[in-house]
Amino acid sequence: MIARVWRATATAEGAEAYREHFTNSVLPTLRSLDGHRGAYLLRLDRDDLVELEVLTLWESDEAIQAFAGTDLTTAVVEPEAQAVLLSYDETVSHRTVVVDTLEATRDAPSGG
């Protein structure tokens, strides 16, 4: 499994607007793609600034390509998201998931 990581900053109001955009627009798109395995939107409040981090999970590079296009390192940031963010990464990073506790929990035999 591959984790795709992207970061942005926003005001508190912008972070809330991005959360709504992520929930109502990004997640439905991701869920419709074969090979998408999950997503997280993380938030860190710092004084008058909010740091956002998006972590999406994928089965393969091919699955990511269905979402991001041929250049896997280019961030997908829709105009609606750009409008509410102060800054955002134009590229993403990818990491190989080496331990997945959720998968292990799903695969574990039921006790009883």
TrEMBL record:
InterPro entries the record matches: ABM_dom, Dimeric_a/b-barrel
Pfam families: ABM
Superkingdom as given in the UniProt entry: Bacteria
Domain ABM: 1-77
Protein name, as recorded: ABM domain-containing protein
Lineage of the species this protein comes from: Bacteria, Bacillati, Actinomycetota, Actinomycetes, Streptosporangiales
